[in-house]
Amino acid sequence: MARARHKQDSIPALEWISAALGLLVLLAMIAVLGLEMRQGGSDDVPLLEARVEGVVPVRGGYVVRIVVANGSGQTAAVVQVEGKLGEETASATLDYVPGHSEARGGLMFKAGPGPIELRVTGYELP
Description:
alpha+beta, 3-stranded antiparallel sheet, single chain
């Protein structure tokens, strides 16, 4: 009587390694999302600060390049920035400043470079 050999279907080692790596990536993503949920929503209002990045001469005046930094986790939309150079005032609206990020824009003045006063005058919560 001939013995019938039954070959066991075994799972290859590479498949086990791939499954383990996938599980590790999934657990890491869940941990990061949980941490972000716990810490990211703790800020009630955006902490916006405007600063001058540089001044560029253009035909008819100067463009003051500005940076608005958001120091909180809360996103700000429709951020309004006002700049004053002597008696001249200029304003700009930045569509979106994400939490813990920066957005850039420019203010246009006719007068030459000098001390510029910048301030954020308003925003909306998205």
